[in-house]
Design brief:
CATH topology of the largest domain: Phosphoribosyl-aminoimidazole Synthetase, Chain A, domain 2
Strand content: 25-35%
Structural class: alpha+beta
CATH superfamily of the largest domain: PurM-like C-terminal domain
CATH class of the largest domain: Alpha Beta
Mean pLDDT: 93
Number of strands: 13
CATH architecture of the largest domain: Alpha-Beta Complex
Helix content: 25-40%
Number of helices: 9
Strand order of the largest sheet: 8-11-7-12-9-13-10
Number of domains: 2
Distance between the termini: 32 Å
Low-confidence stretches: 1-12
Oligomer: single chain
Shape: globular
Largest sheet: 7 strands, mixed
């Protein structure tokens, strides 16, 4: 969730709508979009950590419809306490993921720190008329989610040593998978963001920011990682997820049948989550076909944008 944006120039944008990247218009036809994202290890395997961190950084670019050009590493590492072989594996994970995205890492910067951290600054180019913003949905648009939810809950279970190896591998594969590059499609998308630390509910709330629309979603249509529900029922839930629900709850109308653990699942803080897309219902089938032919995950329609009905988000259960 990059927030390195500017407000003091009409050709720059970002903070005012909580968009995923900073935008800098370079001429009448094109803009540069820029993101920076990094975090501490969320898995023990350093190579996989590097892949996840790189995928997460690239996701902001894809969420705005951009074509990545290149990346720079950002690293913090305790060189005197942990072998540099570990750092090499982290960097190789990031490099290999960037190769998959067909971009090069042109350098970067590192500092000594007691807690390892890794991520990327990514630069992309985009046509001005193709920039995807996060708060420009239209009434009656379908809401599409491209990856299942639950990575925050599952990684918490991994940290507590109660997740099976198959479950661990499943969530690591999901987090390290690149989101679909939307720059190659001519299908008109009205709004887009990616689901990361604020959870599905937080990012839907952003999509409704400064609009006259509410996001009406159906719990039964939302995909989750297998086992996420079982862990949520046992309160194996990260603190960030609980904070998300507490922060956004006043903006949400939940169906009376929805239980607390289900609310937490919807608020789960994701790492390298899927894209959240708003598109005209007539265009949705074509986009779903495009997404599903370019991803290992099945994209789902989870609801619609409707005229504002008191709260920004309405969660149904039928």
């Amino acid at each position: 969730m990059s927030k390195l944006n500017f407000l003091n120039n009409k050709d720059q944008a970002g903070f005012e709508s909580f968009d995923d990247c900073g935008i800098y218009r370079i001429n009448d036809k094109q803009s540069i979009i820029q993101t920076l994202d990094f975090f501490t290890p969320i898995v023990d395997d350093p190579y996989k950590f590097g892949q996840i961190a790189a995928s997460n950084s690239l996701s902001d670019i894809y969420a705005m419809g951009g074509k990545p050009l290149f990346a720079l590493n950002i690293v913090a590492f305790p060189t005197e306490e942990i072998s540099l072989d570990v750092l090499s594996l982290i960097l190789k994970g990031g490099q290999d993921k960037c190769k998959e995205a067909n971009i090069n890492i042109l350098g970067g910067h590192s500092i000594k720190d007691q807690t390892p951290k890794y991520g990327l600054a990514v630069t992309a180019l985009i046509d001005n008329d193709k920039i995807l913003k996060n708060n420009t949905p239209d009434n009656s648009d379908c809401i599409i989610l491209t990856k299942p939810l639950g990575s925050g809950i599952i990684t918490t279970a991994i940290k507590r040593g109660i997740a099976k190896s198959e479950t661990s591998n499943e969530v690591i594969e999901l987090m390290s998978s690149l989101n679909v590059d939307l720059s190659s499609t001519k299908i008109k998308i009205n709004a887009c963001t990616d689901v990361t630390g604020y959870g599905l509910l937080g990012h839907l709330n952003e999509m409704c920011h400064n609009t006259n629309l509410s996001a009406s979603i159906n719990l039964q249509q939302i995909p989750f990682i297998e086992s996420a529900m079982n862990f949520a029922k046992k309160d194996v839930v990260p603190g960030g997820t609980k904070n998300n629900l507490k922060f956004y709850e006043n903006n949400i109308s939940f169906h009376k049948s929805i239980k607390k653990y289900e609310k937490l699942m919807l608020a789960d803080a994701q790492t390298s989550g899927g894209l959240l897309i708003s598109i005209c219902d007539k265009e949705a089938p074509e986009l779903l076909e495009f997404l599903n032919s370019n991803s290992n995950y099945t994209s789902k329609v989870i609801g619609k944008f409707v005229r504002k009905k008191g709260t920004n988000i309405i969660v149904n259960n039928e």
